[in-house]
Protein backbone atom coordinates (compact mmCIF):
# COMPACT_ATOMS: atom_id res chain seq x y z
CA UNK A 1 0.00 0.00 0.00
CA UNK A 2 2.85 2.36 0.90
CA UNK A 3 4.71 1.63 -2.36
CA UNK A 4 1.52 2.20 -4.35
CA UNK A 5 0.94 5.50 -2.56
CA UNK A 6 4.52 6.62 -3.26
CA UNK A 7 4.17 5.70 -6.93
CA UNK A 8 0.93 7.67 -7.19
CA UNK A 9 2.54 10.67 -5.50
CA UNK A 10 5.48 10.54 -7.94
CA UNK A 11 3.10 10.20 -10.87
CA UNK A 12 1.03 13.19 -9.73
CA UNK A 13 4.20 15.19 -9.13
CA UNK A 14 5.45 14.41 -12.64
CA UNK A 15 2.10 15.32 -14.19
CA UNK A 16 2.31 18.72 -12.51
CA UNK A 17 5.83 19.14 -13.87
CA UNK A 18 4.64 18.18 -17.36
CA UNK A 19 2.02 20.92 -17.20
CA UNK A 20 4.67 23.41 -16.08
CA UNK A 21 6.92 22.32 -18.96
CA UNK A 22 4.11 22.89 -21.46
CA UNK A 23 3.55 26.35 -19.99
CA UNK A 24 7.27 27.05 -20.46
CA UNK A 25 7.12 25.86 -24.08
CA UNK A 26 4.10 28.13 -24.54
CA UNK A 27 6.26 31.00 -23.26
CA UNK A 28 9.27 29.88 -25.35
CA UNK A 29 8.41 31.66 -28.66
CA UNK A 30 7.19 34.74 -26.79
CA UNK A 31 10.47 34.97 -24.85
CA UNK A 32 12.35 35.64 -28.11
CA UNK A 33 10.42 38.91 -28.33
CA UNK A 34 10.90 39.90 -24.70
CA UNK A 35 14.69 39.49 -24.63
CA UNK A 36 17.62 37.19 -23.96
CA UNK A 37 17.24 37.31 -20.19
CA UNK A 38 13.72 35.83 -20.32
CA UNK A 39 14.72 33.41 -23.08
CA UNK A 40 17.66 32.10 -21.08
CA UNK A 41 15.52 31.81 -17.95
CA UNK A 42 12.99 29.78 -19.94
CA UNK A 43 15.73 27.49 -21.29
CA UNK A 44 17.19 26.90 -17.83
CA UNK A 45 13.75 26.30 -16.30
CA UNK A 46 12.88 23.71 -18.95
CA UNK A 47 16.21 21.96 -18.31
CA UNK A 48 15.84 21.90 -14.51
CA UNK A 49 12.19 20.90 -14.30
CA UNK A 50 12.61 18.42 -17.15
CA UNK A 51 15.58 16.77 -15.46
CA UNK A 52 13.60 16.35 -12.21
CA UNK A 53 10.59 14.74 -13.89
CA UNK A 54 12.26 12.88 -16.79
CA UNK A 55 15.56 11.69 -15.30
CA UNK A 56 14.44 8.04 -15.59
CA UNK A 57 13.57 8.44 -19.30
CA UNK A 58 17.05 9.25 -20.63
CA UNK A 59 17.41 5.66 -21.81
CA UNK A 60 14.80 6.43 -24.49
CA UNK A 61 17.26 8.71 -26.32
CA UNK A 62 19.39 7.53 -29.20
CA UNK A 63 22.73 6.81 -27.52
CA UNK A 64 24.84 7.71 -30.54
CA UNK A 65 23.20 11.12 -31.00
CA UNK A 66 23.39 11.84 -27.27
CA UNK A 67 27.09 10.97 -27.27
CA UNK A 68 27.84 13.20 -30.30
CA UNK A 69 25.87 16.13 -28.83
CA UNK A 70 27.61 15.78 -25.48
CA UNK A 71 31.01 15.57 -27.19
CA UNK A 72 30.31 18.77 -29.13
CA UNK A 73 29.56 20.74 -25.96
CA UNK A 74 32.58 19.27 -24.17
CA UNK A 75 34.78 20.30 -27.12
CA UNK A 76 33.50 23.87 -26.85
CA UNK A 77 34.61 24.00 -23.22
CA UNK A 78 37.89 22.16 -23.87
CA UNK A 79 38.98 24.27 -26.86
CA UNK A 80 38.03 27.49 -25.07
CA UNK A 81 40.05 26.30 -22.06
CA UNK A 82 43.08 25.56 -24.27
CA UNK A 83 42.78 28.98 -25.93
CA UNK A 84 42.70 30.69 -22.53
CA UNK A 85 44.89 28.33 -20.52
CA UNK A 86 47.02 31.21 -19.26
CA UNK A 87 43.99 33.10 -17.99
CA UNK A 88 41.23 30.84 -16.69
CA UNK A 89 39.39 33.87 -15.34
CA UNK A 90 38.93 34.99 -18.93
CA UNK A 91 35.32 35.84 -19.83
CA UNK A 92 35.40 33.43 -22.79
CA UNK A 93 35.94 30.37 -20.59
CA UNK A 94 32.96 31.21 -18.37
CA UNK A 95 30.84 31.77 -21.49
CA UNK A 96 31.75 28.27 -22.68
CA UNK A 97 30.50 26.88 -19.37
CA UNK A 98 27.27 28.88 -19.60
CA UNK A 99 26.72 27.68 -23.16
CA UNK A 100 26.45 24.14 -21.74
CA UNK A 101 22.81 24.98 -20.87
CA UNK A 102 21.75 24.05 -24.41
CA UNK A 103 22.77 20.40 -23.96
CA UNK A 104 20.16 19.56 -21.27
CA UNK A 105 17.65 21.76 -23.13
CA UNK A 106 18.17 19.69 -26.30
CA UNK A 107 18.02 16.35 -24.44
CA UNK A 108 15.06 17.22 -22.21
CA UNK A 109 13.01 18.57 -25.13
CA UNK A 110 13.79 15.40 -27.11
CA UNK A 111 12.64 13.18 -24.23
CA UNK A 112 9.55 15.30 -23.51
CA UNK A 113 8.45 14.84 -27.12
CA UNK A 114 9.42 11.17 -27.16
CA UNK A 115 7.23 10.29 -24.16
CA UNK A 116 4.24 12.06 -25.73
CA UNK A 117 3.84 14.84 -23.18
CA UNK A 118 4.69 17.83 -25.38
CA UNK A 119 1.50 19.74 -26.22
CA UNK A 120 2.33 21.01 -29.68
CA UNK A 121 -1.06 22.63 -30.07
CA UNK A 122 -0.45 25.01 -27.16
CA UNK A 123 2.94 25.85 -28.61
CA UNK A 124 1.29 26.62 -31.99
CA UNK A 125 -1.23 28.92 -30.34
CA UNK A 126 1.61 30.89 -28.75
CA UNK A 127 3.52 31.10 -32.03
CA UNK A 128 0.42 32.17 -33.96
CA UNK A 129 -0.41 35.00 -31.56
CA UNK A 130 3.19 36.25 -31.53
CA UNK A 131 3.85 36.10 -35.25
CA UNK A 132 0.51 37.54 -36.39
CA UNK A 133 0.60 40.37 -33.86
CA UNK A 134 4.12 41.38 -34.89
CA UNK A 135 3.36 41.03 -38.63
CA UNK A 136 0.25 43.21 -38.55
CA UNK A 137 2.05 45.70 -36.30
CA UNK A 138 4.87 46.09 -38.85
CA UNK A 139 2.41 46.56 -41.75
CA UNK A 140 0.38 49.06 -39.71
CA UNK A 141 3.56 50.98 -38.85
CA UNK A 142 4.58 51.10 -42.53
CA UNK A 143 1.31 52.61 -43.76
CA UNK A 144 0.45 54.88 -40.83
CA UNK A 145 3.89 55.99 -39.62
CA UNK A 146 3.30 54.63 -36.12
CA UNK A 147 2.56 51.17 -34.80
CA UNK A 148 -0.48 50.17 -32.74
CA UNK A 149 1.28 51.37 -29.56
CA UNK A 150 2.25 54.72 -31.06
CA UNK A 151 5.95 53.99 -31.76
CA UNK A 152 7.16 56.01 -34.75
CA UNK A 153 8.36 54.36 -37.96
CA UNK A 154 12.10 54.44 -38.75
CA UNK A 155 12.87 55.94 -35.36
CA UNK A 156 15.84 53.59 -34.79
CA UNK A 157 16.91 53.02 -38.41
CA UNK A 158 16.15 54.70 -41.72
CA UNK A 159 15.57 51.30 -43.33
CA UNK A 160 14.11 49.11 -40.57
CA UNK A 161 10.70 48.83 -38.97
CA UNK A 162 10.54 47.00 -35.67
CA UNK A 163 6.95 47.39 -34.52
CA UNK A 164 6.56 46.95 -30.76
CA UNK A 165 10.14 45.62 -30.55
CA UNK A 166 11.33 49.24 -30.76
CA UNK A 167 15.17 49.36 -30.99
CA UNK A 168 15.46 45.58 -31.52
CA UNK A 169 15.62 45.40 -35.32
CA UNK A 170 14.88 41.68 -35.54
CA UNK A 171 11.20 41.61 -36.51
CA UNK A 172 11.77 40.15 -39.99
CA UNK A 173 14.03 37.40 -38.68
CA UNK A 174 11.53 36.40 -35.99
CA UNK A 175 8.63 36.27 -38.44
CA UNK A 176 10.67 34.28 -40.99
CA UNK A 177 11.65 31.69 -38.38
CA UNK A 178 8.29 31.09 -36.75
CA UNK A 179 5.73 31.87 -39.47
CA UNK A 180 5.95 28.43 -41.08
CA UNK A 181 4.64 26.82 -37.91
CA UNK A 182 1.48 28.82 -38.56
CA UNK A 183 1.42 28.30 -42.33
CA UNK A 184 2.00 24.57 -42.48
CA UNK A 185 1.16 22.76 -39.32
CA UNK A 186 -2.37 24.01 -38.76
CA UNK A 187 -3.82 23.03 -42.16
CA UNK A 188 -1.79 19.81 -42.44
CA UNK A 189 -2.02 18.42 -38.92
CA UNK A 190 -5.33 19.71 -37.61
CA UNK A 191 -7.49 18.81 -40.61
CA UNK A 192 -8.07 15.50 -42.34
CA UNK A 193 -7.66 17.04 -45.77
CA UNK A 194 -6.67 20.28 -47.42
CA UNK A 195 -9.87 22.25 -47.89
CA UNK A 196 -10.40 25.22 -50.20
CA UNK A 197 -10.84 27.63 -47.30
CA UNK A 198 -7.55 26.43 -45.82
CA UNK A 199 -5.89 27.10 -49.19
CA UNK A 200 -7.09 30.69 -49.11
CA UNK A 201 -5.85 31.05 -45.53
CA UNK A 202 -2.42 29.69 -46.50
CA UNK A 203 -2.07 32.15 -49.40
CA UNK A 204 -3.37 35.09 -47.34
CA UNK A 205 -1.02 34.40 -44.44
CA UNK A 206 1.96 33.82 -46.76
CA UNK A 207 1.42 37.23 -48.32
CA UNK A 208 1.00 38.86 -44.89
CA UNK A 209 4.24 37.31 -43.61
CA UNK A 210 6.17 38.19 -46.77
CA UNK A 211 4.93 41.77 -46.68
CA UNK A 212 5.79 42.24 -43.02
CA UNK A 213 9.31 40.86 -43.54
CA UNK A 214 9.75 43.12 -46.58
CA UNK A 215 8.66 46.22 -44.64
CA UNK A 216 10.79 45.26 -41.63
CA UNK A 217 13.92 45.87 -43.73
CA UNK A 218 15.53 42.57 -42.70
CA UNK A 219 16.73 41.55 -46.14
CA UNK A 220 18.24 38.12 -45.53
CA UNK A 221 15.06 36.80 -43.79
CA UNK A 222 13.13 37.84 -46.91
CA UNK A 223 15.40 35.67 -49.08
CA UNK A 224 15.18 32.81 -46.57
CA UNK A 225 11.38 33.07 -46.56
CA UNK A 226 11.22 32.62 -50.33
CA UNK A 227 13.81 29.82 -50.19
CA UNK A 228 11.70 28.00 -47.58
CA UNK A 229 8.59 28.31 -49.73
CA UNK A 230 10.52 26.94 -52.71
CA UNK A 231 11.80 23.94 -50.73
CA UNK A 232 8.30 23.18 -49.48
CA UNK A 233 7.15 23.37 -53.09
CA UNK A 234 9.65 20.61 -53.91
CA UNK A 235 8.80 18.38 -50.94
CA UNK A 236 5.05 18.76 -50.34
CA UNK A 237 2.81 18.04 -53.32
CA UNK A 238 -0.49 18.78 -51.57
CA UNK A 239 0.12 22.52 -51.27
CA UNK A 240 2.09 23.27 -54.44
CA UNK A 241 -0.66 25.39 -56.01
CA UNK A 242 -0.97 27.44 -52.84
CA UNK A 243 2.80 27.95 -52.74
CA UNK A 244 2.95 29.05 -56.40
CA UNK A 245 0.14 31.54 -55.79
CA UNK A 246 1.88 32.81 -52.65
CA UNK A 247 5.21 33.29 -54.42
CA UNK A 248 3.64 35.10 -57.39
CA UNK A 249 1.68 37.45 -55.15
CA UNK A 250 4.75 38.08 -53.00
CA UNK A 251 6.83 38.99 -56.06
CA UNK A 252 4.12 41.39 -57.22
CA UNK A 253 4.04 43.05 -53.81
CA UNK A 254 7.84 43.30 -53.76
CA UNK A 255 8.13 45.10 -57.09
CA UNK A 256 5.14 47.36 -56.48
CA UNK A 257 6.56 48.31 -53.07
CA UNK A 258 10.06 49.17 -54.27
CA UNK A 259 8.58 51.04 -57.23
CA UNK A 260 6.51 53.27 -54.98
CA UNK A 261 9.05 53.61 -52.16
CA UNK A 262 12.41 55.06 -53.26
CA UNK A 263 13.95 54.42 -49.85
CA UNK A 264 12.98 50.73 -50.02
CA UNK A 265 14.18 50.47 -53.61
CA UNK A 266 17.66 51.82 -52.86
CA UNK A 267 17.97 49.54 -49.84
CA UNK A 268 17.23 46.34 -51.78
CA UNK A 269 19.18 47.37 -54.89
CA UNK A 270 22.27 47.87 -52.72
CA UNK A 271 21.66 44.44 -51.17
CA UNK A 272 21.80 42.67 -54.51
CA UNK A 273 24.81 44.73 -55.56
CA UNK A 274 26.60 43.59 -52.40
CA UNK A 275 25.88 39.95 -53.21
CA UNK A 276 27.35 40.30 -56.69
CA UNK A 277 30.49 42.08 -55.50
CA UNK A 278 31.15 39.89 -52.43
CA UNK A 279 32.93 37.06 -54.27
CA UNK A 280 35.13 39.51 -56.20
CA UNK A 281 36.01 41.28 -52.98
CA UNK A 282 37.10 38.10 -51.21
CA UNK A 283 39.09 36.70 -54.12
CA UNK A 284 40.96 39.96 -54.73
CA UNK A 285 41.90 40.52 -51.07
CA UNK A 286 42.47 37.18 -49.40
CA UNK A 287 45.82 36.35 -51.02
CA UNK A 288 47.33 39.81 -50.61
CA UNK A 289 50.29 40.11 -48.24
CA UNK A 290 51.37 43.33 -46.58
CA UNK A 291 54.78 42.81 -44.90
CA UNK A 292 55.30 46.54 -44.32
CA UNK A 293 51.92 46.83 -42.58
CA UNK A 294 52.54 43.70 -40.53
CA UNK A 295 55.77 45.24 -39.31
CA UNK A 296 54.31 48.62 -38.37
CA UNK A 297 50.98 47.37 -36.91
CA UNK A 298 49.41 50.83 -37.24
CA UNK A 299 45.63 51.15 -37.37
CA UNK A 300 45.02 51.31 -41.12
CA UNK A 301 42.48 54.15 -40.99
CA UNK A 302 45.21 56.39 -39.57
CA UNK A 303 47.10 55.87 -42.81
CA UNK A 304 44.05 56.16 -45.03
CA UNK A 305 42.54 59.32 -43.57
CA UNK A 306 44.26 62.69 -43.54
CA UNK A 307 44.06 65.09 -40.59
CA UNK A 308 41.15 66.92 -42.22
CA UNK A 309 39.21 63.64 -42.51
CA UNK A 310 39.55 63.26 -46.29
CA UNK A 311 40.80 60.07 -47.91
CA UNK A 312 44.43 59.81 -48.93
CA UNK A 313 43.97 58.77 -52.56
CA UNK A 314 47.55 57.48 -52.90
CA UNK A 315 47.08 55.08 -49.97
CA UNK A 316 43.65 54.08 -51.24
CA UNK A 317 45.01 53.25 -54.69
CA UNK A 318 48.16 51.53 -53.39
CA UNK A 319 46.23 49.12 -51.15
CA UNK A 320 43.15 48.82 -53.35
CA UNK A 321 40.81 50.00 -50.59
CA UNK A 322 37.30 49.00 -51.54
CA UNK A 323 33.85 50.21 -50.55
CA UNK A 324 31.99 47.16 -49.30
CA UNK A 325 28.35 48.06 -48.70
CA UNK A 326 27.08 46.48 -45.47
CA UNK A 327 30.60 45.41 -44.53
CA UNK A 328 29.90 41.69 -44.46
CA UNK A 329 32.55 40.94 -47.09
CA UNK A 330 35.24 42.61 -44.99
CA UNK A 331 34.04 40.73 -41.89
CA UNK A 332 34.11 37.41 -43.78
CA UNK A 333 37.64 38.13 -45.00
CA UNK A 334 38.76 38.90 -41.45
CA UNK A 335 37.08 35.74 -40.12
CA UNK A 336 38.70 33.50 -42.75
CA UNK A 337 42.15 34.91 -41.98
CA UNK A 338 41.69 34.44 -38.24
CA UNK A 339 40.48 30.87 -38.70
CA UNK A 340 43.54 29.93 -40.79
CA UNK A 341 45.75 30.96 -37.85
CA UNK A 342 44.16 28.30 -35.60
CA UNK A 343 42.42 26.00 -38.06
CA UNK A 344 41.91 22.86 -35.96
CA UNK A 345 40.68 23.90 -32.51
CA UNK A 346 39.87 27.58 -33.02
CA UNK A 347 40.27 30.34 -30.44
CA UNK A 348 37.43 29.61 -28.03
CA UNK A 349 33.80 30.61 -27.87
CA UNK A 350 32.94 34.21 -28.84
CA UNK A 351 36.58 35.07 -29.50
CA UNK A 352 36.07 36.90 -32.79
CA UNK A 353 35.23 40.31 -31.31
CA UNK A 354 38.60 40.35 -29.55
CA UNK A 355 40.82 38.75 -32.19
CA UNK A 356 39.46 40.75 -35.12
CA UNK A 357 41.16 43.83 -33.65
CA UNK A 358 44.51 42.25 -34.53
CA UNK A 359 43.66 42.66 -38.24
CA UNK A 360 42.69 46.31 -38.29
CA UNK A 361 46.16 47.38 -39.44
CA UNK A 362 45.35 45.76 -42.81
CA UNK A 363 43.15 47.24 -45.56
CA UNK A 364 39.62 46.00 -46.18
CA UNK A 365 39.25 44.37 -42.77
CA UNK A 366 36.50 44.94 -40.24
CA UNK A 367 35.74 44.12 -36.63
CA UNK A 368 32.38 43.07 -35.19
CA UNK A 369 31.09 41.01 -32.29
CA UNK A 370 30.80 37.92 -34.53
CA UNK A 371 31.53 36.91 -38.17
CA UNK A 372 27.86 37.14 -39.33
CA UNK A 373 27.89 33.57 -40.64
CA UNK A 374 27.23 30.39 -38.66
CA UNK A 375 30.05 28.35 -40.19
CA UNK A 376 32.70 31.06 -39.96
CA UNK A 377 31.60 31.60 -36.37
CA UNK A 378 31.99 27.92 -35.45
CA UNK A 379 35.27 27.62 -37.37
CA UNK A 380 36.74 30.60 -35.54
CA UNK A 381 35.64 29.40 -32.13
CA UNK A 382 36.09 25.60 -32.22
CA UNK A 383 37.99 25.05 -35.46
CA UNK A 384 37.49 22.41 -38.12
CA UNK A 385 37.28 19.64 -35.48
CA UNK A 386 34.33 21.24 -33.69
CA UNK A 387 32.67 22.23 -36.97
CA UNK A 388 32.86 18.71 -38.38
CA UNK A 389 31.50 17.28 -35.14
CA UNK A 390 28.53 19.67 -35.26
CA UNK A 391 27.85 18.77 -38.90
CA UNK A 392 28.08 15.09 -37.96
CA UNK A 393 25.50 15.70 -35.21
CA UNK A 394 23.10 17.27 -37.71
CA UNK A 395 23.73 14.46 -40.20
CA UNK A 396 23.15 11.75 -37.57
CA UNK A 397 19.86 13.28 -36.39
CA UNK A 398 18.53 13.70 -39.94
CA UNK A 399 19.73 10.27 -41.08
CA UNK A 400 18.17 8.58 -38.05
CA UNK A 401 14.83 10.27 -38.72
CA UNK A 402 14.79 9.81 -42.50
CA UNK A 403 15.39 6.07 -42.03
CA UNK A 404 12.05 5.82 -40.15
CA UNK A 405 9.92 7.62 -42.77
CA UNK A 406 8.67 4.40 -44.36
CA UNK A 407 7.12 3.39 -41.03
CA UNK A 408 5.18 6.65 -40.71
CA UNK A 409 1.95 7.89 -42.29
CA UNK A 410 1.82 10.55 -45.00
CA UNK A 411 0.92 13.28 -42.49
CA UNK A 412 3.81 12.22 -40.28
CA UNK A 413 6.19 12.31 -43.25
CA UNK A 414 5.01 15.82 -44.06
CA UNK A 415 5.62 16.83 -40.46
CA UNK A 416 9.19 15.51 -40.59
CA UNK A 417 9.88 17.16 -43.95
CA UNK A 418 8.64 20.49 -42.62
CA UNK A 419 11.23 20.43 -39.87
CA UNK A 420 13.95 19.15 -42.19
CA UNK A 421 13.38 22.16 -44.43
CA UNK A 422 13.38 24.58 -41.49
CA UNK A 423 16.72 23.17 -40.31
CA UNK A 424 18.24 23.29 -43.80
CA UNK A 425 17.21 26.94 -44.21
CA UNK A 426 18.46 27.86 -40.73
CA UNK A 427 21.84 26.29 -41.57
CA UNK A 428 22.00 27.60 -45.16
CA UNK A 429 25.78 28.01 -45.69
CA UNK A 430 26.03 31.33 -47.55
CA UNK A 431 23.49 33.36 -45.57
CA UNK A 432 24.50 36.21 -43.30
CA UNK A 433 23.34 35.58 -39.76
CA UNK A 434 23.74 36.43 -36.11
CA UNK A 435 26.21 34.59 -33.94
CA UNK A 436 25.77 30.82 -33.85
CA UNK A 437 26.49 30.95 -30.11
CA UNK A 438 23.97 33.73 -29.50
CA UNK A 439 20.99 32.96 -27.26
CA UNK A 440 18.20 33.28 -29.84
CA UNK A 441 20.02 31.37 -32.58
CA UNK A 442 21.13 28.47 -30.39
CA UNK A 443 17.72 28.25 -28.70
CA UNK A 444 15.85 28.06 -31.99
CA UNK A 445 18.28 25.65 -33.66
CA UNK A 446 18.49 23.16 -30.78
CA UNK A 447 14.71 23.31 -30.40
CA UNK A 448 14.28 22.27 -34.05
CA UNK A 449 16.86 19.51 -33.66
CA UNK A 450 15.17 18.28 -30.47
CA UNK A 451 11.79 17.96 -32.22
CA UNK A 452 13.35 15.91 -35.01
CA UNK A 453 15.36 13.85 -32.53
CA UNK A 454 12.45 13.13 -30.20
CA UNK A 455 9.61 12.64 -32.68
CA UNK A 456 8.59 9.08 -33.50
CA UNK A 457 4.86 9.08 -34.11
CA UNK A 458 2.10 11.67 -34.23
CA UNK A 459 0.98 10.59 -30.80
CA UNK A 460 4.29 11.99 -29.46
CA UNK A 461 2.76 15.45 -29.88
CA UNK A 462 -0.64 16.32 -28.41
CA UNK A 463 -2.29 17.88 -31.44
CA UNK A 464 -5.93 17.80 -30.42
Detailed description of the structure:
The chain has helices at 2-34, 36-54, 63-83, 91-98, 102-114, 120-144, 171-189, 196-216, 219-235, 240-260, 262-285, 291-296, 300-304, 313-318, 328-341, 352-355, 374-402, 410-426, 439-454. The model has no long low-confidence stretch (mean pLDDT 84). Helix 1 runs antiparallel to helix 2 (36-54). The chain starts with a helix and ends in a 10-residue tail after the last helix. The chain is 69% helix and 0% strand. It is mainly α. It has a domain at 122-260. The protein is globular and about 85 Å long.
Distance between the termini: 36 Å
Shape: globular
- Unreliable stretches: none
DSSP strand tally = 0
- Biggest sheet features: none
Return the average pLDDT rounded to an integer.
84
DSSP helix fraction: 55-70%
How many DSSP helices? 19
Strand content: under 5%
Q: Tell me the series of helices and strands, N- to C-terminal.
A: HHHHHHHHHHHHHHHHHHH
Structural class: mainly alpha
Radius of gyration: 24 Å
Assembly annotation: single chain
List keywords for this structure.
0% strand, 464 residues, mainly alpha, single chain, 19 helices
Write the layout of secondary structure elements.
Elements: H1 2-34, H2 36-54, H3 63-83, H4 91-98, H5 102-114, H6 120-144, H7 171-189, H8 196-216, H9 219-235, H10 240-260, H11 262-285, H12 291-296, H13 300-304, H14 313-318, H15 328-341, H16 352-355, H17 374-402, H18 410-426, H19 439-454
